[in-house]
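Input structure tokens:
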């Protein structure tokens, strides 16, 4: 009897290891949409936090929401959250990730007047730092509501990371402008 129980436990452990290992090696283009779907169904704060970010407006692109921009650049865009420090009531800090895959992003090269910076077949990720306190949501330090301008902390295009307040580069805003142009052109 003990031998059978041991075999069953070993079998369960092997299956769990295969599942976890398989999840770890899945590419983000498969894993993140699955995770977003799971979070949307199981996390009570997902729609509140992600909905506020989606409804906010892209800086320097009037009336273009992050939702319409990301949906316009890729039908497979997805939104996931990470709870950084959240209490039982759902208040605290979150990271919100907006991902799109196989995107071509092009904008002017700030180091060369004749050239363009082009990222082909890239993974684009916007990262937002969101704080929830009751009904109040803040992105960064600014309280956010529908249609309000929001600033992602960083924009990742391929292996490049563009930071919001980088004094040495305009690529942060240029990448957002390029994504907006692509997103609104698709409409």
């Amino acid at each position: 009897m003990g031998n059978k129980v041991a075999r069953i436990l070993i079998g369960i452990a092997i299956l769990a290891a295969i599942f976890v290992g398989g999840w770890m090696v899945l590419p983000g283009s498969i894993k993140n949409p699955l995770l977003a779907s799971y979070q949307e169904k199981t996390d009570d704060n997902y729609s509140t936090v992600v909905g506020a970010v989606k409804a906010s407006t892209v800086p320097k692109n009037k009336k273009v929401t992050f939702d319409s921009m990301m949906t316009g650049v890729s039908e497979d865009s997805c939104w996931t959250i990470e709870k950084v420090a959240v209490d039982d009531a759902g208040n605290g800090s979150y990271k919100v990730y907006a991902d799109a895959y196989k995107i071509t992003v092009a904008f002017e090269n700030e180091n060369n007047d004749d050239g363009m910076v082009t990222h082909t077949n890239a993974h684009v990720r916007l990262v937002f730092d969101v704080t929830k306190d009751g009904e109040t949501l803040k992105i960064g330090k600014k309280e956010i509501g529908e249609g309000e301008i929001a600033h992602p902390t960083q924009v990742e295009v391929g292996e490049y990371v563009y930071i919001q307040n980088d004094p040495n580069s305009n690529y942060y805003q240029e990448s957002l402008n390029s994504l907006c142009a692509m997103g609104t052109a698709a409409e």
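The mean pLDDT is 84. The longest helix spans residues 2-25.
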